[in-house]
Description:
Layout: E1 6-9, E2 19-25, E3 34-39, E4 52-53, E5 65-73, E6 81-87, E7 90-91, E8 93-98, E9 101-102, E10 107-108, E11 114-117, E12 127-135, H1 141-147, E13 153-154, E14 157-158, E15 162-168, E16 171-179, E17 184-192, E18 199-205, E19 211-218, E20 223-229, E21 244-251, E22 257-265, E23 270-273, E24 277-280, E25 283-284, E26 287-292, H2 305-317, E27 322-325, H3 332-341, E28 344-349, H4 359-373, E29 379-384, H5 395-401, E30 407-409, E31 414-415, E32 418-419, E33 439-440, E34 445-447, H6 458-467, E35 473-477, E36 484-485, E37 493-494, H7 513-521, E38 525-527, E39 539-544, E40 555-563, E41 572-580, E42 589-593, E43 605-611, E44 617-624, H8 628-635, E45 645-648, E46 652-657, E47 660-665, E48 670-676, E49 679-681, E50 684-689, E51 696-704, E52 707-714, E53 719-724, E54 729-736, E55 741-742, E56 745-750, E57 756-765, E58 778-785, E59 803-805, E60 810-815, E61 821-825, E62 831-834, E63 855-860, E64 881-882, E65 893-900
Parallel strand pairs: 26-27, 26-35, 27-28, 28-29, 29-30, 32-33, 34-35
Antiparallel strand pairs: 1-15, 2-3, 2-5, 4-13, 5-12, 6-11, 6-15, 7-14, 8-9, 8-10, 8-12, 16-17, 17-20, 18-19, 18-21, 21-22, 23-24, 24-25, 31-32, 36-37, 38-39, 39-42, 40-41, 40-43, 43-44, 45-46, 46-47, 47-48, 48-49, 50-56, 51-52, 52-53, 53-54, 54-65, 55-64, 56-63, 57-58, 57-60, 59-62, 60-61, ...
Amino acid sequence: MAQQTETIYLSGTGAENTVNWDFYCSEGQNSGEWTSIPVPSCWEQQGFGSYDYGHVPFEKRMNETGRYRYRFNIPKSWKDKEIAIVFDGVMTDAEVKINGKLAGPIHQGAFYQFRYDITKLLNIGQENQLEVFVKKHSDNESVSLAERKADFWIFGGIFRPVFLEAKPKTNIHRVAIGAQANGDFKADVYLTNAKNASQIRIDIQTLAGETEASFRSDITGHVSRVSGTFNNPQTWSPEFPNLYQAVFNLLDKNKQVIHRHTERIGFRTVEVRESDGIYLNGVKIKMQGVNRHTFHPKFGRTSSKDLSITAVNLMKDMNMNAVRMSHYPPDKHFLEVCDSLGLVVIDELTAWQKPSYDDVVGRKLLEEMIARDVNHPSVIIWANGNEGGENNSLNDDFAELDIQQRIVIHPWQDYEMTNTLHYIDYDYLSLDGFSKRKIYFPTEFLHGLYDGGHGAGLDDYWLRMWNDPLCAGGFLWVFADESVERTDGDNELDSDGNHAPDGILGPYNEREGSFFTIKEIWAPIQFEKRYITPNFNGVFNIENRYFFTDLSQCSFAAEWVSFSGPGQRITEIIDSTEKLKLNLAPGNKSQMQVKLPANWQALDALRITAVDPHGRHINTWTWPVKKAQVKAQELLTETSALKPTLDETDSDLTVTAGEITISFEKTNGTITEIKKQGQLIPLSNGPLFVSREKTVKHFSTSFVDNNLRIEVTYENADYAKWTIDGHGLVDLEVAYEPTGRSQFAGITFDFPEDNVAGMKWLGNGPYRVYKNRMKGVNFGLWEKAYNNTITGESGFIYPEFKGYHSEVYWAEIEGKDNLGFTVYVRSNDIFLRMLTPDEPAAPARTKLEYPAGDISFLHGINAIGTKFKGPDNLGPQSMPNQFSSAKMDGGKLTMRLTFDFN
C-alpha cells in the first residue's frame, strides 16, 4: 500500500466551517475571562479585543493578546509516523505548545504557513493539549511595520486553518516544480530521513488519474533533482487553464512506495523580455487585473474556498485575466482557484510604504511563501513589498529559492526591466519620460473611491495601454469595498471614512456600475463603434483581443428585439435570433455579418451576446435601430380636436387642457405649477438652462390650429417653444448656445425628491453614467424603484437610482400618489439626470457638481474623479464638454421633448 500523507484538522477549514477552542483575550471586548472562540477566525469579528485601522499610530492601539487551548487525540495508527502541526496563518506572533512544551521558535509574520515537527511531544492514542499564545502586534518591529502599519484593517487571531500531518518517517518533505510549455519538466524533491530510500518516480497524470508520462531519478541527497520531457502537453493559460497532477513516489530499494505526494501543476512558460514585454507560452500578454485583499465584512481576513471561488468568478466575469495579491500571500485555496479557473497572479511579500521585514525574519517568511506557492502555475511574478516597502537584501533570494526563477518586481517603482509606477496621470501614458525603455504595468491605477475611478477613466487609459507595445497591462485598485461589520456596535458597516470604500464591488460583492464598464472595456471581443441607420448593412468590424483563443471557439447570438411602451407592463419581444460564427485568430480584426430580417427597421434594437469556450458570458452589446425622434413619433400617434384655454396676466399665464392645468411665469419663461384634476404634479421651475443663465427678451402666445404655442425668446436668439394640445400633451423645443467649455449643458426642472417613487425608461441602463464612464450599460427597457444609496458608504442597493442616465428615449417618472409624468425624447444623445446623488462623508476628488434642480435633460454631462486624481488628470473623456457654434448646424444645440401629464 502506498503511504499517503494523512491530515486531521484541529480547526475548521474556513470562515463558514469552524471549530470552537477555549479562548482568553487580554484587553478590549469580552476580555479577562476564559470563554470559547471559533477557529479559524479574526477575534474582533467574534466580539473580542479592539478595532484598529492601519493608519492608527501604534501608541494609540490596545495591542491585545489571545490565549487558545484545544484538546485533541492522535490515532494509534500514527504511532510510527512523523507528525507535524501546520498553521496556515496566525496574526501575528504565535507561541505554540504541545502538552506544555514549546513546539519550536515563536513564529512572527501573519500571512505565512508555518509548521513544527511535534512527533516527540505527543501522547499517541491519548488526549493532547494544544496551547497557542498570540500577540496581535509583533515583538519584531519590522514585522509590525510591514504588516500592521498599512492602509487596511488590522485583525488578530488564528485566522487560517490549523491541521496535523502524518507521514512515514522517511518521506517527501516538499517539492518544487518547474513545468515548461514545451514539456520540459524538473522538480527538486526535499526529503526527510532519505537513507532508507533509493529512487523517486514521478508520474504526470491527467486530473482523471491517467498517467501520460513518467520520470525517474536516483536519490542524490537531501534534495534530489528529477527531470524529463513530457511530449506535447496541453499548456496552462488564463484562457485555457489546463492542469495535470504530478504524483511523486518515493521508492525503497525494492521499488516499493514508501511515501506518495501529489501536486497539481500546469505546463507554462513565462518570459520577461527586456524593452519588449511579458510573454506567456511565447505570446506577449497584457494583464487586465485588479488588486485583491482577502477580506469579508463578517469574517475579516478569514476566508474559505467557496469565497475564493466566488471572488475569482467575479474577476473572470469582468473579463480580467490577472490579480495582484495586496499586500500579502493569500490563502492557498485562492491560488488553487486561480490555477483552475485561469488568472495570472502577482504574489507579494508583505510591506506597505515602510521598510519591510528585517533580513532574518524576511528571509524566513520569504522561504515560507515560496515553499507554499512555488508550484502554482497561476503565480507568474513575485513582488518584494509594496510602495517602497521592499527589503533589497532579499532581491536575490527570490531567485535562489524559486526553481522557476520568476521575475521580481517592486510595486510603484522603476526596478530592473519593469516600471510599475502607481496612480499615474493620463499624460504619463505617453511614456516619453525617464523610463521609456522599461516594460510598463502599473500595479495600482485608477484608485477607486465610492463610485469614482475604476470604470471612470478606464476607456481612455486602456486605449493607450492596449496600443502601447511596451505596456504589459495594469491592476485596478481595488476588488471590493473593505467595510467591516463592527461587533463593538450593532454590526454596522465601518469603512474608516474614505479609506476602505475603494471597491468595484460592494462589501458583500454587490456589483457597482464600474463592474460592467470594466467588463465591456476589457472584453476580449471588441466591436468598432457604429450607429444603426436605415443604410445599415448588417456588418460589424470586430477585433479579437484574446491571446490564445480563436473566436471560432466562442459562440455568438444575435437577437432583434421590440420593447413595450409607456403605461404597459415591461415586455420585450424577440422577433428573430441568429447563431453567429466567426473564425478569427487572436490579435486580428475582421467583420461579422448579421442577417437583416425583412422588417428590421420596424424593430427597436439589435442585441449580440458573446460566450467564451467555457460557457462564460463575455458581454452583450445592444444597438437601437431607430432614432429617438422616430420612436417618439411611433408612440405619440393621437391628435386632439380640443383646444386649450388661457388665463393670462401681466406676469403669469395659466393653460387648461383637458384635466391638466399648467401655469407659467412670463418673466423667466418657466413652469410654476402643474395640476391634474386639481392635484399637484410637482414639476416646476423649468426649463432653466444649466450651462449659461438666460435672460428672457420676449414671451408670446398664439394658436396653431387647435394647439397653443408659447414662445420664449432669450438673449442671443436662444429660445424655448411650448406646444400644448387640448388633451394636455405638452411639447417643448429648446435651442441654445452653451458656454464654450462646460461641465454640463441642457435644461433642468425642479421635482422634489420626496415625491419620487421610481422610474421606468427606454434607454441605456440600468446603471448611471458619467462622461468618463459611458460603457457598461445597454440599450433596453429598465425599471428602478427609488433608493438613496451612496455608493460604497450606505444603502448598498444597486443600481443606484439617482444620477445621469444616457441615450434616453422615453421615461416614466413615478411620483407618489401617481402624480408623476411621462416624457418622450425626440432628440438623439440626450441624458436624463434623475435627482442629485447624496455626497459621501469624505468624497475627496470624487465630489461631483450637478446641475441645479432635480430632473434635467442634457446634451452633455461631467466626469467623476478617483481617490487621488481629479477629472482633469484622467484623459480626454474626463475633460469638460466643448462647444463651438461655428461647427453646429444653425449654431445652437437643439432638443425636443414631449410631456404627458395624464
